[in-house]
Amino acid sequence: MIQVRAIDKSYTLPGQKITVLKKLSLDIAEGDFVAIMGPSGTGKSTLLNLLGCLDIADSGSFILEQNTISKMDDRALAEIRNRKLGFVFQSTIFVDYLDLPDNVAIPGFYSGMSHFDGRQRAIGLLKQVGLGHRLSHLPGQLSGGESQRVAIARALFNRPRILLADEPTGNLDRRNSVEIVNMLRGLNAEGLTIVLITHDETVARAAGKIFTMQDGELKHHAGQ
Q1: What is the pTM of this model?
Q2: Which of 53, 82, 121, 157 has its CB 3.0 to 4.6 Å from that of 77, i.e. a possible disulfide?
């Protein structure tokens, strides 16, 4: 599903060039649950941005389901993101004055789906993540764990092939972290491919494949 070969990524700051990824290679098969660990500043989020077509490597190749990402323009990349990828981040961003179904349905509104159809799909997803009793609530009325459930529901709205999660439990207590991880495991069991960035070893152990980012390279560890 994902084939990354010898990608490099650097950033230029005044007076210096910082190399973040060095000849990095990675294969992810359909249905995999992959965790990428490592302390801050090791390039985990940079790699996730590349896998999510939010950024482009300086060199090397990246193929996502027969699409050569490194050769695509911005419009084609946006299409890939909309059709194939779902994103969950550490910090959730919602429209404060919209209720939860409308927040979850935002990707559908952008793609031309009717308001009614969007809300119906969003309501189904909210029930799927255990928030069927919160349909009339606003984002400000949610706990941290509930907010991440809404974020996952929104990420699933366009039926992505791959879910990319960047520290989705970073702001949560242990109980809520366990609930979110169990939800991700359930989605993976249903066939969703997941790439998870985390600094938490307990969270990473939910994955079938675990990598550690070190000096811009990946070190593989056996998963569960």
Answers
A1: 0.90
A2: 53
